[in-house]
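Re: beginner question about structure tokens

> Can someone show what the tokenized structure looks like for a real chain? I only ever see the sequence side.

Sure, here's an example I had lying around. Input first:
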Amino acid sequence: MALITADRERFPNTPWQLVETRHEPGSAGTLETLFALGNGHLGIRGAHWAAADADLPGSFINGLHEIWDIKHAENAFGFARTGQRIIYIPDANNFTVVIDGESLTLAESAVVDYRRSVDFSTGIYECRITWRCRSGATVTTTERRAVGFAARGSLGISLEVASDREVSADVTSSVINRQDQPVEDHSAHDPRRAGRHAGRVLLPVRIDGGDGSLRLSWEAAESGQRVGIAVDHWTSAGHQPFETVAGEDDSSVRYVLAVRAEEPFRLEKSVSYAAGRGVQDAERDAAEAAEAGLRPVEDIFAESREHYRAYWATSDIVVGGQPELQQAIRWNLFQLAQATARADVAGIPAKGVTGSGYEGHYFWDQEVYLLPYLTYTNPVGARQVLEFRHDMLPAAKIRA
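And the corresponding structure tokens:
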């Protein structure tokens, strides 16, 4: 949190939020981790919606991994033979906004006002930017996102575009399969750094799209694990998509329209992922399984608010007279909640579901550090962590 405490004008001290009031290049990767959202199963890095403004954007599912053969200089009993590495799943948090022919990006466009935040009390991320377009129009974009809890693979995103005059808007919503990405901000010898696979990771199984909806699924080349995604779009005033394109690495839904003063355009993107044992059967359509988890975006936001209302009622720690410490404590408790809430009977990755650090592995940290926290705040979660370890004992005995 040194980046935060070093500039309190840019990151004001707010007890229930992490807020950024000014965009500066150079710290995007760190902030994508700090602004990430997750529920222990699904994680979304806190990247800006425009690809040009992101450093390491991506999404993850706890336990979804690829494998490779480990080569040892010398062999001995007990040496691991197969490596496992968490992979980037196809990422739905991607938009392009073109106003009067100008593609809006923080790097190239004029920014009049900027504010983004993640609210610990609701679990909702919001980024509001006011742009001065080259055409003379003043345009404000507001993106909000939250992950679901009842359906743990669900994600809700809304993007609103408002203007002080009539403008021509071209808005594209995309799902991008980035596969596994290198972590570029660590040294080559840093054990936290995730490696790369030699070949293609996700092989397409189903690639369908039409009328603003996408149904997509892939299979990991070596592990055989499957992931499906279903995406539906809704727009204010019933705008119909200009085109829907489905591809194995880049799928998109595009809207072309006029945005008038005092008549904002709002695009809601409901996303659902399906992965794990339930979709490993070759006869099961992973995209169809994901479709069953689609929820209205506002329902996902309401669900997130209710989840954190209940969470803080039993988990908050109040420190009087030290506002910076209060914010830091709540941010850390928020991270613990995001790493564990819907992990269910699975391990807790060392980095939660905020990134690929430590390759998504589970360590003894979860029993030593996380278990006491879960015992007091989420006893069911504590039991599930122990069940996960208990289920591994038969294989561990054989290996021993």
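Each token stands for a local structural state, so reading them left to right follows the chain. The chain has two domains: 2-304, 309-399.
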